[in-house]
Amino acid sequence: MMTKKSFVVAAVLVVLLGMALGCCSKCEQEGVVVETDPLPSWNEGATKQSIVDFVTRVTDEGSPDFVPAPERIATFDNDGTLWAEQPMYFQLFFAIDRVKAMAGDHPEWKDEQPFKAVLEGDMEALATAGEHGLLELVMATHAGMTTEEFEAIVLEWLVTAKHPTTGRAFTEMVFQPMLEVLNYLRANDFKTFIVSGGGIEFMRPWTEAVYGIPPEQVVGSSIKTKFEIRGETPVLIRLPEINFIDDNVGKPVGINSHIGRRPIAAFGNSDGDLQMLQWTAAGDGVRFMLYVHHDDSEREWAYDRDSHIGRLDKGLEEAEAGGWTVVSMKDDWAQVFAWE
Amino acid sequence: MMTKKSFVVAAVLVVLLGMALGCCSKCEQEGVVVETDPLPSWNEGATKQSIVDFVTRVTDEGSPDFVPAPERIATFDNDGTLWAEQPMYFQLFFAIDRVKAMAGDHPEWKDEQPFKAVLEGDMEALATAGEHGLLELVMATHAGMTTEEFEAIVLEWLVTAKHPTTGRAFTEMVFQPMLEVLNYLRANDFKTFIVSGGGIEFMRPWTEAVYGIPPEQVVGSSIKTKFEIRGETPVLIRLPEINFIDDNVGKPVGINSHIGRRPIAAFGNSDGDLQMLQWTAAGDGVRFMLYVHHDDSEREWAYDRDSHIGRLDKGLEEAEAGGWTVVSMKDDWAQVFAWE
Description:
Chain A has 340 residues and is an alpha/beta fold. In chain A, 44% of the residues lie in helices and 15% in strands.
């Protein structure tokens, strides 16, 4: 018998498998040249070359820069690095949809901020609620259920939710060039990790199907959980209490806590990733640090120093000073999304 | 140029490699039969058969109990399950040796408990200091340095420290039958994790060499760390503040936080592992739960319901009620340690 949860999981996997197969048949159609280039969505140039050069140096056993396979750890930010993050973080769309879905059980929300703003679609009022308001939204919508119930809620949402401007599923808003980097690194015996400010339990249900990154290689922000036996069934209850914020100075802490070794390559797009890149850069031997710079207002979005979401300011300066790779989405990416 | 740290790491690896090679040549000498039995240190019988049966059921694609490789997660307690834990937890020997090594910089310890007890070798006074006293020892000896400095201290200690009754290195006090289970599971595409009440950073420097378990697959208790830039170098400082206790109800929480999926097999030896085994047992499909029962006073130690270290009381009852596997070290293990 198929439970509701396994149905939802199956539905998500069918959708994602379709995307993957679509990509494969496309590659086949494009013939041999595409198959030998591990990064076909990247335009030729210094940016693409810097990735290939790094991988070649650390995987060539004759190179002084050779790194044994177990130490080939690569960490990726998620929002704005692997998938888009405009017009707002996708997890916030999830929280808003959950407030609407749960509103029937919470008549008091009609008069209470920030819930009132969400229910009335008043984004301005929501913005004035600030970080504290967002935290209240997350706690009200992400806690109070078991870990398994939350996983099912996330997967169910992903099946129906659509991005407001593209109309695509959120799991389709991933960057094709970055999927290629993930695959290229793994083909060279790298272990790829997500290290995101987003919720760890919000990402884990789908990262394996979408990015090929299993749950145990996802690091993120979290709320506390509590083990208890309900009736005769052991469960983990999600509590409305912050456990860890995996952003800024939290990223090296999260990397150390979950991975226990320093990455040799790190990929980000905002100042929130700066400490992860600094931590990566400070290790011995050859290192690779990359910033995705959102400068493509036509195919994606253009924002950096003045953006409230994914601000990239100090990071750009450090990247320049340190000789890190900065990707121009406009110039370096032949294709942005897989469905283009 | 070889730094002091890399020298220590190299020395540890040479010692460990010697152990591994010794084992291999031994296997070769014993011929073909040994090579086809993945668990040669286990006596034939129901216990050994239960392990083989489980692995066969979940890896046979034609079996209704088949589990896809990525979901083959197995978790192992460390103290008392993979290595010995008597006459006291090995990490406590480390803390005591550190107090002695650091005493010169802390003249006040001569008059302050629990440090006074340690310096005077007064184990009775140390015992009366209780959990709070142990915590003070750990904080004084495990915090206040960078993560890299601590790693070097642990590795350096392992080279010289000896177990008080066997005179062996602590990393030799590992159970040969459990090493075989780890290898057997990995040969069948399981991912093996440590989930221990011990310190995560105390284990990670050596688990890959000793158990074949990489740092990113070690879950344990931890203190908080803080990212800061010292001069121009980013470091993680270890703070004297508990972050997470990975014991009892903490084990399912730690598993969920680090691994993000429920194990299908779990191995422990004490009531501190009970919730991990309950959490494992409560999943769908076939599950394997195993308790190592220390009942061999000649080759190892015999203790269970009344022991202060590794007490196994409620767990024994649940194991019986639930039909879990209980290993009699005395009857089920042909060999306990690799050097026997």
